[in-house]
Amino acid sequence: MDKSMEFALFKFQLIAPILNDKKIVQKKYFKDMSEKTFNLSFTKQTKFSPTTFKKWLYLYKKYGLDALKGTYRKDKGKTRVINDELKEKIKHLVNEYNFKTVTNLYEYLIQQEIIYENDFTYATLNTFLKNSNIFNSSIQKKPRKAFEMPHINMLWMTDFMYGPYVYSGKSKIRTYLCAIIDDYSRVVVYAQFFSAQSVKSLEHSLKNAVSKFGIPNKLYCDNASIFTGGYLQLISARLGFIIIHSEVHDAPPRGKIERVFRTVRDRFIPQFFIKYKDKHITLDVLNEYFFSWLHNDYNNKVHSSIKETPLNRYFKDSDNTKIRRIAENRIDQMFYHTIYRRVNNDATIAYKNSLYELPAKYIGAKIEIRFDPFNDDILYLYQDDKQILQLKKIK
Question: What is the 3-state secondary structure (H, E, C) of 32-100?
Fold first, then answer.
């Protein structure tokens, strides 16, 4: 991904809470963020001022994601490793004061001026403690509390589940169920079986969910590569929602979607194979039956936790919630993939062994190309987040 786009996505993730949560006090939030240190691959700058955050927020509101692309300032702070003397000091503090979290220890070191913020990052300290096995005896398991968002579309959860084998021609292939659930209502806003556990499967599911139920404020997922890639971040920035990743090996917060998967395994799959016993089952047949079951048996069946049907709870709360929607004719564009190319001297660019022609005025320019991942033969030229023209394929 282009470095300027990486920087733009980083900026968006920092200002996104202000855009999505009216309870957050902007002045305090930006002040808190200005006190944090960031270790970024695309810029040497590690800290940003409240004024800078305000500027990013203004630019995004007025001009969109592309306005967040910018130049990079060089940070003047020096970073050093943790020397032997400091290592012994940290070990002593952990044993003496029984620190439970790396965050508390890092803040204490700064407050007592044992270190300064530019000495090294929280991540450096965390790595040192992990490698030194210092915290193992001190860290306690986090308490688990049942939680639920107060309204619909405030939080969606998504994940993949291994599905049954089906026929593809004469061969059998594994299927994968991608599901997205609304935390408050328990509605499965979209789910479908695919032949691959891929980014395209996730994007297809998310696009259909947004089309039917609007845009969520937050999307909760795990740390699998499907959920951490740049394209999902790009989609979140275009639509204006936050991506939240669960901690590594920390499964309990995903309990609601795991329960959906258990219901699919316990109720749907046995019913399906009883109905289609000894038949040539394809992916299309599986999904046709699944969509019907999802609507009639899951979303319209009384849920044991909420004591009503998920769809009923969703629509009851829709009167209390402003649902963010996007025009149908713009949804596909929000999910376009982006590539960058420099235009050749013959006014062409190459993509997937084909040549595409542009007007001569773009010769030598680095341009942004977007395309539908499900129909990537058609390429569009974009400038300032606006579609300029469709490229002509010449071979």
Answer: HHHCCCCCCCCCCCCCCCHHHHHHHHHHHHHHCHHHHCCCCCCCCCCCCCCCHHHHHHHHHHHHHHCCC
